[in-house]
């Protein structure tokens, strides 16, 4: 497999950095190719700017239009083009980060904002039907994606009854709204809990869990998100009434089967 590993943590001595190093060594041991986008080490700029698109700052910036035009004409900023080339090369995307305020660090969010532009990651229509190709279909269809996330909380508090909310709900904007939206198959996330309290022994367990997930990248069953154009949604993109049962509201309504419980 060809794996692009994208990570964001401000300290090269962090738990995330150690997991990244162990993960890349595991990919080597399993015979996979890999490339790395360590956003801290790269000094990645997360802020969308007119210069990303060779856009005249005197003119109003419509990001979707300007980014698509720049992608089509080859005038995107070189740092954006380099990341897109890595994504095109890869068949698997691993995104690793600490869970901060229930989301990604700003540098990683900005990587998606700048790299996943219209024309490259979305904005395609089905020529037969005219419907947009998204949510299970799109330019990135055929690729797999997985989140590796560290959190200070315990596993149980990121489950369905936990005070922090279910992890798959917290990751829904990324897993469903970015990966699945662009057509990627989404593997269940790997949570490394208690990030600030790991001992050498518990770190060894965490690294073993990461290696086990990397060993099965090609065979792990994905999250069972509904396809937009499979008939589950009407022409207004609303779930048909018989599928939107009261017990399945919010993110849960958009799975054909519930995610498996988090591993302890």
From TrEMBL:
Claim: Oxidoreductase is one of the keywords in the record: yes
EC number(s) reported in the record: 1.-.-.-
InterPro entries, per database record: Flavodoxin_fold, Flavoprotein-like_sf, NAD(P)H_dehydrogenase_qn
GO molecular function per UniProt: oxidoreductase activity
Key word Plastid present: no
Chain ranges of the Flavodoxin-like fold domain: 1-213
Keywords per UniProt: Oxidoreductase
Protein family per UniProt: Belongs to the NAD(P)H dehydrogenase (quinone) family.
Identification of the protein by name: NAD(P)H-dependent oxidoreductase
């Amino acid at each position: 497999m060809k794996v692009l590993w994208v990570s964001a943590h401000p300290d090269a001595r962090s738990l995330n950095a150690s997991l990244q190093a162990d993960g890349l060594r595991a990919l080597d041991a399993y015979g996979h190719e890999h490339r790395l986008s360590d956003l801290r080490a790269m000094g990645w700029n997360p802020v969308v700017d007119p210069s990303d698109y060779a856009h005249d700052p005197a003119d109003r910036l419509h990001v979707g239009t300007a980014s698509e035009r720049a992608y089509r004409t080859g005038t995107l900023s070189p740092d954006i083009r380099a990341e897109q080339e890595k994504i095109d090369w890869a068949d698997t995307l691993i995104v690793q980060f600490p869970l901060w305020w229930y989301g990604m660090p700003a540098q990683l969010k900005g990587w998606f904002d700048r790299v996943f532009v219209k024309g490259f990651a979305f904005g395609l229509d089905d020529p037969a039907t005219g419907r947009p190709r998204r949510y299970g279909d799109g330019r990135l269809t055929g690729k797999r994606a997985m989140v590796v996330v560290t959190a200070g909380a315990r596993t149980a508090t990121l489950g369905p009854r936990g005070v922090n909310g279910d992890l798959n709900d917290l990751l829904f904007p990324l897993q469903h709204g970015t990966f699945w939206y662009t057509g990627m198959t989404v593997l269940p996330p790997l949570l490394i809990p208690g990030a600030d309290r790991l001992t050498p022994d518990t770190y060894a367990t965490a690294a073993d869990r990461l290696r086990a997930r990397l060993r099965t990248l090609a065979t792990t069953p994905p999250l069972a998100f509904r396809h937009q154009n499979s008939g589950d949604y009407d022409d207004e993109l609303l779930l048909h009434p018989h599928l939107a049962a009261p017990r399945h509201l919010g993110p849960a309504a958009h799975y054909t089967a519930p995610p498996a419980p988090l591993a302890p």
